[in-house]
Design goal:
The protein has helices at 27-39, 49-59, 73-85, 87-93, 150-164, 171-174, 214-229, 234-237, 266-269, 289-296, 339-347, 376-380, 400-410; strands at 45-46, 63-68, 97-101, 120-125, 131-135, 248-250, 258-261, 277-281, 284-285, 304-312, 315-323, 350-353, 364-368, 387-391, 417-423, 426-432. It is α+β, with helices and mostly antiparallel strands. The protein is globular.
Length: 437
Protein backbone atom coordinates (compact mmCIF):
# COMPACT_ATOMS: atom_id res chain seq x y z
CA UNK A 1 0.00 0.00 0.00
CA UNK A 2 1.30 3.43 -0.85
CA UNK A 3 2.12 5.59 2.12
CA UNK A 4 0.74 9.07 2.49
CA UNK A 5 0.98 11.92 4.94
CA UNK A 6 -2.23 13.13 6.55
CA UNK A 7 -2.51 16.84 7.28
CA UNK A 8 -6.10 16.62 8.53
CA UNK A 9 -9.27 14.98 7.30
CA UNK A 10 -10.82 18.17 6.03
CA UNK A 11 -9.66 21.49 4.74
CA UNK A 12 -10.07 21.02 1.01
CA UNK A 13 -11.44 18.24 -1.12
CA UNK A 14 -9.53 15.36 -2.57
CA UNK A 15 -8.93 14.66 -6.24
CA UNK A 16 -11.73 12.62 -7.88
CA UNK A 17 -10.90 9.00 -8.61
CA UNK A 18 -11.03 9.48 -12.38
CA UNK A 19 -7.91 11.65 -12.03
CA UNK A 20 -5.67 9.08 -10.34
CA UNK A 21 -3.73 8.46 -13.53
CA UNK A 22 -3.20 12.14 -14.33
CA UNK A 23 -0.14 14.21 -13.62
CA UNK A 24 0.07 15.34 -10.03
CA UNK A 25 -2.10 18.43 -9.73
CA UNK A 26 -1.85 21.39 -7.43
CA UNK A 27 -4.13 21.46 -4.42
CA UNK A 28 -5.98 24.37 -5.95
CA UNK A 29 -6.70 22.39 -9.11
CA UNK A 30 -7.83 19.40 -7.05
CA UNK A 31 -10.27 21.65 -5.22
CA UNK A 32 -11.63 23.08 -8.43
CA UNK A 33 -11.94 19.62 -9.99
CA UNK A 34 -13.82 18.36 -6.96
CA UNK A 35 -16.19 21.32 -6.99
CA UNK A 36 -16.84 20.84 -10.69
CA UNK A 37 -17.60 17.17 -10.13
CA UNK A 38 -19.87 17.41 -7.10
CA UNK A 39 -21.50 20.81 -7.58
CA UNK A 40 -22.89 19.59 -10.89
CA UNK A 41 -24.19 16.34 -9.37
CA UNK A 42 -27.88 16.79 -8.41
CA UNK A 43 -27.60 14.06 -5.77
CA UNK A 44 -25.22 16.22 -3.73
CA UNK A 45 -25.49 19.58 -2.01
CA UNK A 46 -22.08 21.20 -2.16
CA UNK A 47 -20.64 22.93 0.89
CA UNK A 48 -23.93 24.27 2.22
CA UNK A 49 -25.18 22.58 5.38
CA UNK A 50 -27.94 25.17 5.86
CA UNK A 51 -29.35 24.23 2.46
CA UNK A 52 -29.15 20.55 3.37
CA UNK A 53 -31.17 21.22 6.53
CA UNK A 54 -33.88 22.96 4.53
CA UNK A 55 -34.12 20.11 2.01
CA UNK A 56 -34.15 17.55 4.81
CA UNK A 57 -37.00 19.28 6.59
CA UNK A 58 -39.09 19.54 3.45
CA UNK A 59 -38.38 15.96 2.32
CA UNK A 60 -38.32 14.39 5.82
CA UNK A 61 -35.04 12.64 5.07
CA UNK A 62 -31.99 12.34 7.30
CA UNK A 63 -28.79 14.14 6.29
CA UNK A 64 -25.53 12.45 5.35
CA UNK A 65 -22.76 15.04 5.74
CA UNK A 66 -19.45 13.80 4.31
CA UNK A 67 -16.09 15.40 5.04
CA UNK A 68 -12.85 14.52 3.28
CA UNK A 69 -9.12 15.16 3.35
CA UNK A 70 -7.12 16.61 0.46
CA UNK A 71 -3.68 14.92 0.76
CA UNK A 72 -4.86 11.41 1.70
CA UNK A 73 -4.38 9.47 -1.55
CA UNK A 74 -5.36 6.09 -0.11
CA UNK A 75 -8.56 7.52 1.35
CA UNK A 76 -9.69 8.84 -2.02
CA UNK A 77 -10.03 5.20 -3.09
CA UNK A 78 -12.27 4.56 -0.11
CA UNK A 79 -14.15 7.76 -0.87
CA UNK A 80 -14.72 6.72 -4.48
CA UNK A 81 -15.87 3.23 -3.55
CA UNK A 82 -18.33 4.66 -1.06
CA UNK A 83 -19.72 7.45 -3.19
CA UNK A 84 -18.96 6.46 -6.74
CA UNK A 85 -19.10 2.76 -7.37
CA UNK A 86 -20.37 0.69 -4.46
CA UNK A 87 -23.98 -0.27 -5.28
CA UNK A 88 -25.08 -0.76 -1.68
CA UNK A 89 -23.84 2.68 -0.70
CA UNK A 90 -25.55 4.22 -3.72
CA UNK A 91 -28.87 2.58 -2.82
CA UNK A 92 -28.59 3.81 0.77
CA UNK A 93 -27.63 7.32 -0.36
CA UNK A 94 -31.00 7.70 -2.07
CA UNK A 95 -32.61 7.70 1.38
CA UNK A 96 -30.52 10.66 2.59
CA UNK A 97 -30.02 14.29 1.78
CA UNK A 98 -26.32 14.20 0.92
CA UNK A 99 -24.06 17.18 1.54
CA UNK A 100 -20.33 17.35 0.84
CA UNK A 101 -18.55 19.70 3.23
CA UNK A 102 -15.33 21.13 1.79
CA UNK A 103 -14.19 23.61 4.40
CA UNK A 104 -14.24 24.36 8.11
CA UNK A 105 -14.65 28.05 7.36
CA UNK A 106 -18.08 29.06 8.59
CA UNK A 107 -18.85 25.53 9.82
CA UNK A 108 -21.04 25.56 12.92
CA UNK A 109 -19.25 23.51 15.58
CA UNK A 110 -22.46 23.21 17.54
CA UNK A 111 -23.48 20.74 14.82
CA UNK A 112 -20.11 19.36 13.70
CA UNK A 113 -18.22 18.12 16.76
CA UNK A 114 -16.03 15.17 15.82
CA UNK A 115 -12.48 13.89 16.07
CA UNK A 116 -10.69 16.48 13.96
CA UNK A 117 -7.67 14.26 13.23
CA UNK A 118 -9.66 11.88 11.05
CA UNK A 119 -9.02 11.62 7.32
CA UNK A 120 -12.52 10.38 6.51
CA UNK A 121 -15.53 11.48 8.52
CA UNK A 122 -19.29 11.61 8.23
CA UNK A 123 -22.00 12.90 10.51
CA UNK A 124 -25.57 11.71 10.05
CA UNK A 125 -28.34 14.06 11.21
CA UNK A 126 -32.09 13.91 11.56
CA UNK A 127 -34.00 16.54 9.54
CA UNK A 128 -34.06 18.82 12.59
CA UNK A 129 -30.27 18.75 12.92
CA UNK A 130 -29.92 16.15 15.68
CA UNK A 131 -26.93 13.81 15.41
CA UNK A 132 -27.99 10.22 14.72
CA UNK A 133 -24.46 8.89 14.42
CA UNK A 134 -20.86 9.54 13.46
CA UNK A 135 -18.49 7.58 11.27
CA UNK A 136 -14.73 7.80 10.82
CA UNK A 137 -12.00 6.22 12.93
CA UNK A 138 -8.26 6.24 12.64
CA UNK A 139 -5.56 4.67 14.77
CA UNK A 140 -2.60 4.63 12.40
CA UNK A 141 -0.81 7.21 10.30
CA UNK A 142 -0.81 5.35 7.00
CA UNK A 143 -3.26 2.45 7.24
CA UNK A 144 -7.05 2.56 7.44
CA UNK A 145 -8.16 -1.01 6.63
CA UNK A 146 -8.41 -1.98 10.31
CA UNK A 147 -10.54 1.05 11.17
CA UNK A 148 -12.97 1.74 8.32
CA UNK A 149 -14.44 -0.05 5.33
CA UNK A 150 -17.13 0.26 2.70
CA UNK A 151 -19.12 -2.51 4.40
CA UNK A 152 -18.79 -0.84 7.79
CA UNK A 153 -19.93 2.52 6.50
CA UNK A 154 -22.93 0.95 4.78
CA UNK A 155 -23.83 -0.77 8.05
CA UNK A 156 -23.62 2.55 9.91
CA UNK A 157 -25.78 4.29 7.29
CA UNK A 158 -28.39 1.54 7.69
CA UNK A 159 -28.15 1.85 11.46
CA UNK A 160 -28.86 5.58 11.22
CA UNK A 161 -31.87 4.91 9.00
CA UNK A 162 -33.15 2.35 11.50
CA UNK A 163 -32.90 4.94 14.28
CA UNK A 164 -34.58 7.60 12.17
CA UNK A 165 -37.51 5.31 11.35
CA UNK A 166 -38.22 4.92 15.07
CA UNK A 167 -39.49 8.50 15.13
CA UNK A 168 -39.70 10.47 18.35
CA UNK A 169 -39.01 7.35 20.44
CA UNK A 170 -35.30 7.66 19.60
CA UNK A 171 -34.88 10.91 21.54
CA UNK A 172 -33.46 9.27 24.71
CA UNK A 173 -31.15 7.11 22.57
CA UNK A 174 -29.52 10.07 20.81
CA UNK A 175 -29.67 12.75 23.49
CA UNK A 176 -26.10 12.08 24.59
CA UNK A 177 -24.84 12.30 20.99
CA UNK A 178 -25.57 16.00 20.79
CA UNK A 179 -22.63 18.38 21.31
CA UNK A 180 -22.65 20.76 24.23
CA UNK A 181 -23.02 24.31 22.96
CA UNK A 182 -19.83 26.31 22.53
CA UNK A 183 -19.69 30.00 23.29
CA UNK A 184 -17.46 30.39 20.22
CA UNK A 185 -18.89 27.98 17.71
CA UNK A 186 -17.26 28.97 14.42
CA UNK A 187 -13.63 28.04 13.72
CA UNK A 188 -12.66 31.41 12.31
CA UNK A 189 -13.70 33.05 15.59
CA UNK A 190 -11.53 30.86 17.81
CA UNK A 191 -8.61 32.87 19.27
CA UNK A 192 -5.88 30.84 17.53
CA UNK A 193 -7.53 31.27 14.11
CA UNK A 194 -9.37 34.59 14.22
CA UNK A 195 -6.52 36.71 12.86
CA UNK A 196 -5.75 34.33 9.98
CA UNK A 197 -9.01 33.12 8.46
CA UNK A 198 -12.43 34.30 7.32
CA UNK A 199 -15.82 32.62 7.30
CA UNK A 200 -15.59 31.79 3.59
CA UNK A 201 -12.90 30.53 1.25
CA UNK A 202 -11.18 33.07 -0.95
CA UNK A 203 -11.33 32.63 -4.70
CA UNK A 204 -8.21 33.09 -6.78
CA UNK A 205 -4.61 32.37 -5.79
CA UNK A 206 -5.34 32.21 -2.04
CA UNK A 207 -8.02 29.53 -2.31
CA UNK A 208 -5.97 26.80 -0.62
CA UNK A 209 -4.30 29.06 1.94
CA UNK A 210 -7.65 30.46 3.05
CA UNK A 211 -8.99 27.05 4.14
CA UNK A 212 -9.14 26.06 7.81
CA UNK A 213 -7.97 22.47 8.14
CA UNK A 214 -9.73 20.23 10.61
CA UNK A 215 -6.70 19.52 12.73
CA UNK A 216 -6.35 23.30 13.14
CA UNK A 217 -9.83 23.39 14.65
CA UNK A 218 -8.88 20.63 17.08
CA UNK A 219 -5.69 22.43 18.02
CA UNK A 220 -7.55 25.72 18.50
CA UNK A 221 -10.11 24.07 20.78
CA UNK A 222 -7.26 22.42 22.69
CA UNK A 223 -5.65 25.85 23.14
CA UNK A 224 -8.89 27.25 24.54
CA UNK A 225 -9.02 24.47 27.14
CA UNK A 226 -5.28 24.84 27.87
CA UNK A 227 -5.62 28.56 28.47
CA UNK A 228 -8.70 28.13 30.62
CA UNK A 229 -7.18 25.45 32.87
CA UNK A 230 -3.62 26.74 32.86
CA UNK A 231 -2.43 23.18 32.15
CA UNK A 232 -3.16 20.70 29.40
CA UNK A 233 -5.39 18.09 31.00
CA UNK A 234 -5.47 14.43 30.05
CA UNK A 235 -9.02 14.86 28.72
CA UNK A 236 -7.84 17.52 26.26
CA UNK A 237 -4.74 15.66 25.08
CA UNK A 238 -6.11 12.12 24.73
CA UNK A 239 -9.29 12.90 22.82
CA UNK A 240 -11.74 10.37 21.37
CA UNK A 241 -9.96 7.37 22.90
CA UNK A 242 -9.87 4.28 20.74
CA UNK A 243 -11.65 1.28 22.33
CA UNK A 244 -8.54 -0.80 21.55
CA UNK A 245 -6.95 0.57 24.72
CA UNK A 246 -9.71 -1.14 26.72
CA UNK A 247 -8.96 -4.48 25.10
CA UNK A 248 -11.67 -4.70 22.44
CA UNK A 249 -10.83 -5.04 18.75
CA UNK A 250 -13.83 -4.31 16.56
CA UNK A 251 -14.54 -5.64 13.08
CA UNK A 252 -14.38 -2.63 10.70
CA UNK A 253 -16.69 -4.41 8.24
CA UNK A 254 -19.54 -4.10 10.75
CA UNK A 255 -21.09 -1.40 12.89
CA UNK A 256 -19.68 -2.45 16.25
CA UNK A 257 -19.16 -6.21 16.26
CA UNK A 258 -16.35 -7.53 18.43
CA UNK A 259 -13.63 -9.36 16.50
CA UNK A 260 -11.20 -10.02 19.34
CA UNK A 261 -10.81 -9.46 23.09
CA UNK A 262 -7.43 -8.98 24.76
CA UNK A 263 -7.20 -11.34 27.77
CA UNK A 264 -7.12 -9.60 31.15
CA UNK A 265 -8.32 -6.28 29.74
CA UNK A 266 -11.10 -4.05 31.04
CA UNK A 267 -13.51 -5.39 28.44
CA UNK A 268 -12.50 -9.00 29.06
CA UNK A 269 -13.21 -8.56 32.77
CA UNK A 270 -16.64 -7.18 31.85
CA UNK A 271 -17.47 -10.45 30.12
CA UNK A 272 -17.52 -9.22 26.52
CA UNK A 273 -16.98 -12.01 23.97
CA UNK A 274 -15.93 -12.15 20.31
CA UNK A 275 -19.05 -11.96 18.17
CA UNK A 276 -20.88 -9.65 20.56
CA UNK A 277 -22.27 -6.45 19.08
CA UNK A 278 -22.09 -3.28 21.16
CA UNK A 279 -25.45 -1.58 20.68
CA UNK A 280 -25.59 1.00 23.49
CA UNK A 281 -23.26 2.83 25.88
CA UNK A 282 -24.38 5.20 28.63
CA UNK A 283 -27.87 4.91 27.21
CA UNK A 284 -26.79 6.05 23.73
CA UNK A 285 -27.46 3.92 20.68
CA UNK A 286 -24.07 3.28 19.05
CA UNK A 287 -23.79 2.40 15.36
CA UNK A 288 -20.05 2.80 14.71
CA UNK A 289 -16.67 2.82 16.37
CA UNK A 290 -16.80 6.62 16.16
CA UNK A 291 -19.97 6.55 18.26
CA UNK A 292 -18.15 4.45 20.87
CA UNK A 293 -15.29 6.97 20.85
CA UNK A 294 -17.78 9.79 21.34
CA UNK A 295 -19.06 8.10 24.50
CA UNK A 296 -15.55 7.36 25.78
CA UNK A 297 -14.56 10.98 25.21
CA UNK A 298 -17.11 12.00 27.86
CA UNK A 299 -15.53 9.79 30.54
CA UNK A 300 -13.05 11.71 32.74
CA UNK A 301 -9.41 10.73 33.08
CA UNK A 302 -10.12 9.88 36.72
CA UNK A 303 -12.08 6.87 35.47
CA UNK A 304 -15.61 5.71 35.94
CA UNK A 305 -18.17 3.02 35.21
CA UNK A 306 -19.59 2.88 31.70
CA UNK A 307 -22.83 0.90 31.26
CA UNK A 308 -22.76 -1.08 28.01
CA UNK A 309 -25.47 -3.12 26.29
CA UNK A 310 -24.43 -6.02 24.07
CA UNK A 311 -26.35 -8.06 21.54
CA UNK A 312 -25.33 -11.72 21.81
CA UNK A 313 -27.09 -14.31 19.66
CA UNK A 314 -30.19 -12.14 19.51
CA UNK A 315 -30.33 -11.43 23.23
CA UNK A 316 -29.50 -8.10 24.89
CA UNK A 317 -27.00 -8.31 27.75
CA UNK A 318 -26.17 -5.45 30.12
CA UNK A 319 -22.61 -5.11 31.35
CA UNK A 320 -20.30 -2.44 32.75
CA UNK A 321 -16.80 -1.32 31.83
CA UNK A 322 -14.81 -0.13 34.84
CA UNK A 323 -12.21 2.44 33.77
CA UNK A 324 -9.34 3.11 36.16
CA UNK A 325 -7.63 6.49 36.74
CA UNK A 326 -5.39 7.64 33.85
CA UNK A 327 -7.04 5.14 31.50
CA UNK A 328 -7.07 7.67 28.65
CA UNK A 329 -3.28 8.05 28.66
CA UNK A 330 -2.97 4.49 27.35
CA UNK A 331 -4.04 5.76 23.94
CA UNK A 332 -1.39 6.69 21.38
CA UNK A 333 -1.47 10.19 19.90
CA UNK A 334 1.64 9.82 17.73
CA UNK A 335 -0.43 9.28 14.56
CA UNK A 336 -2.46 12.43 15.07
CA UNK A 337 -1.75 15.45 12.88
CA UNK A 338 -2.40 17.71 15.87
CA UNK A 339 0.60 16.11 17.59
CA UNK A 340 2.94 17.97 15.21
CA UNK A 341 2.32 21.18 17.11
CA UNK A 342 2.91 19.39 20.40
CA UNK A 343 6.25 18.14 19.09
CA UNK A 344 7.23 21.74 18.49
CA UNK A 345 6.07 22.83 21.93
CA UNK A 346 7.33 19.88 23.97
CA UNK A 347 10.14 18.24 21.99
CA UNK A 348 11.59 21.22 20.18
CA UNK A 349 10.59 19.77 16.80
CA UNK A 350 11.78 16.17 17.24
CA UNK A 351 9.87 13.13 15.99
CA UNK A 352 10.62 9.97 17.98
CA UNK A 353 9.92 6.45 16.74
CA UNK A 354 10.97 2.84 17.30
CA UNK A 355 13.24 1.81 14.41
CA UNK A 356 11.46 -0.85 12.30
CA UNK A 357 12.91 -4.34 12.35
CA UNK A 358 14.97 -3.86 15.50
CA UNK A 359 14.39 -5.97 18.57
CA UNK A 360 15.44 -3.04 20.77
CA UNK A 361 12.66 -0.79 22.01
CA UNK A 362 15.04 2.18 22.12
CA UNK A 363 13.45 5.23 20.54
CA UNK A 364 15.23 7.04 17.76
CA UNK A 365 15.00 10.58 16.43
CA UNK A 366 13.63 10.19 12.91
CA UNK A 367 13.17 13.88 12.14
CA UNK A 368 14.13 17.29 13.52
CA UNK A 369 12.49 20.48 12.33
CA UNK A 370 14.71 22.68 10.20
CA UNK A 371 12.82 25.95 10.30
CA UNK A 372 11.76 28.21 13.15
CA UNK A 373 9.92 27.69 15.45
CA UNK A 374 10.29 23.91 14.94
CA UNK A 375 14.10 23.93 15.00
CA UNK A 376 14.95 24.19 18.73
CA UNK A 377 16.12 20.56 18.92
CA UNK A 378 18.26 21.05 15.82
CA UNK A 379 19.82 24.20 17.26
CA UNK A 380 20.55 22.32 20.49
CA UNK A 381 22.62 19.84 18.48
CA UNK A 382 20.27 16.89 17.95
CA UNK A 383 20.07 15.05 14.64
CA UNK A 384 17.91 12.51 12.85
CA UNK A 385 19.32 9.06 13.58
CA UNK A 386 20.28 9.82 17.19
CA UNK A 387 19.12 7.10 19.58
CA UNK A 388 17.45 8.16 22.81
CA UNK A 389 19.35 7.11 25.93
CA UNK A 390 17.27 9.12 28.38
CA UNK A 391 14.92 12.09 28.55
CA UNK A 392 14.31 14.00 31.78
CA UNK A 393 16.42 11.44 33.65
CA UNK A 394 14.32 8.46 32.56
CA UNK A 395 15.61 5.76 30.23
CA UNK A 396 12.74 3.30 29.89
CA UNK A 397 10.71 5.19 27.30
CA UNK A 398 8.88 3.04 24.76
CA UNK A 399 6.50 5.57 23.19
CA UNK A 400 6.83 9.15 22.04
CA UNK A 401 3.32 9.72 23.41
CA UNK A 402 4.44 8.89 26.96
CA UNK A 403 7.36 11.33 26.74
CA UNK A 404 5.13 14.18 25.55
CA UNK A 405 2.60 13.54 28.32
CA UNK A 406 5.27 13.24 31.02
CA UNK A 407 6.96 16.47 29.99
CA UNK A 408 3.64 18.32 29.85
CA UNK A 409 2.93 17.21 33.40
CA UNK A 410 6.39 17.84 34.85
CA UNK A 411 8.15 20.49 32.75
CA UNK A 412 5.39 22.75 31.45
CA UNK A 413 6.76 25.46 33.77
CA UNK A 414 9.66 26.00 31.38
CA UNK A 415 12.33 24.35 33.50
CA UNK A 416 14.94 22.62 31.28
CA UNK A 417 14.96 18.88 30.85
CA UNK A 418 17.97 16.89 29.65
CA UNK A 419 18.04 14.78 26.49
CA UNK A 420 20.80 12.17 26.25
CA UNK A 421 21.34 10.52 22.86
CA UNK A 422 23.77 8.02 21.41
CA UNK A 423 25.49 8.92 18.14
CA UNK A 424 28.27 6.82 16.61
CA UNK A 425 29.03 5.22 19.96
CA UNK A 426 29.19 8.49 21.86
CA UNK A 427 26.71 10.08 24.26
CA UNK A 428 25.56 13.64 23.63
CA UNK A 429 23.68 15.69 26.22
CA UNK A 430 21.52 18.72 25.50
CA UNK A 431 18.85 20.69 27.35
CA UNK A 432 15.44 21.58 25.99
CA UNK A 433 12.35 23.29 27.44
CA UNK A 434 8.61 23.15 26.91
CA UNK A 435 7.63 26.34 25.05
CA UNK A 436 4.11 27.11 23.89
CA UNK A 437 5.00 30.40 22.23
Amino acid sequence: MKKFWVYGWLGLMLLPAHSWGEEKLSREQKVRNDRERFASDPTWIYNDFAAALEVAKSSDKPILAVMRCLPCEECVKLDDEMFGSDPKIQALREQFVCVRIVSNNGLDLNYFRIDTDQSFAAVIFSPDGKVLGRYGTRSHQTEWENDVSVEGFAATMQGALDLFKQGSSISPKIEGKQPTKLAVNFPEKLPALSSKYKSTLEEGPNLVKSCIHCHQVGEALRDVAWDKEGVLKEENLFVYPNPKILGVILDPRTRTSVRRIIPGSVVAKAGVLPGDEIIAMQGQAVISTADIQWVLDSVPASGGNVPVTLLRRGKEIDTQWDLEPSWRAKDDIAWRVSTWELRRIVLGGMVLKNPPGESSKKLQITHVGRFSPHDRALKAGLQAGDKIVSIAGKNAWQRETDIIWYLLQNHADGKPYEVVVEREGKEIRVNLTVQRT
